[in-house]
Predict the structure.
Amino acid sequence: MPANKTQYVWMDGKLTEEKNVRVPVLTHSLQYGSGMFEGLRVYETDRGAAIFRLQDHVKRFMNTAKIYSIDLGFTADEISDAIIAVVKKNALLSGYIRPFAFYNDTQIGISTFGKKVSVFVAAVPFGAYYGKGEDAGIKCKVSSWHRINSLILPPEAKASGNYINSILSSIEARHSGFDESILLSTAGYVAEGPGENIFFVERDKLITPPREADILLGITRDSIIQIAEAMGMVIEERNVHREELYTCDEAFFSGTAAEITPITNIDGTKVGTGKVGVMTSALSKAYSDVVHGRNKEFASWLTYV
Ligand SMILES: Cc1ncc(COP(=O)(O)O)c(C=O)c1O
């Protein structure tokens, strides 16, 4: 966002300048990590700005609220309308949208009962998450921290507190000279990245860990599965052993922020040739065509603003 451009957010039903919004420093959500959120992208297309898979993101937002017994005070349609309104008001052609719910209170104490909930939606310009460019991959480290599981915290909810687990694994990877981490599930299977799902290619098959590997059910992951199916690729959702990370031909992260990010090195071992793979490139191009409205088959995933 250019420094001089007024930024608007939607807060509890009203569009307002971001600088006018106040969040109490004693909010439960800052003290205890009880915020919850979504992340969507808006893309520039020939027909203007389009939000990618709006309904699916809002559905996941509502599900997170349900898991945590948070009464948002707004329906899914109202949240969708708020997201559209923020993108419009900021005249955002391409960027990232962050709906967020938090306890708007000032009382110390873990219980959430009786606390007021506030919801805001912000939308900001946003480029490539890892910023390496399409032809370059990232170096990942398998983390010594395991992915949370639903005996401890619900991995399928997008709650702020979950990301403390992600942050620890990311810090470890960066301290060791890597770009990012890969987390294993409690059972020892490959789960996902700190904010991304993971895919592998082994002998022309596309493989991704299943729900049972304690992953967040990524909307990009689902999009890639459907796009790959339409391209005639063979897809397997199955548990992946750690050693397959070293022997696979290609690997990539998927996520709203990361989009498709090739992984070319894991724990110091080259993935395949160490260059971005053929299937990864083909899927990247296909995904880019879909989100930019150049593929009619998946046109229903776009909400034009
Ligand atoms: C832990 C985690 N896994 C996977 C993803 C990818 O999900 P999506 O494709 O819906 O953005 C995200 C991003 O939201 C995430 O935070």
Notes: Residues 105 and 114 are 10 Å apart (CA to CA). Residues 39, 192, 195-197, 216, 218-221, 254-256 surround pyridoxal-5'-phosphate (CB under 6 Å). The mean pLDDT is 96.
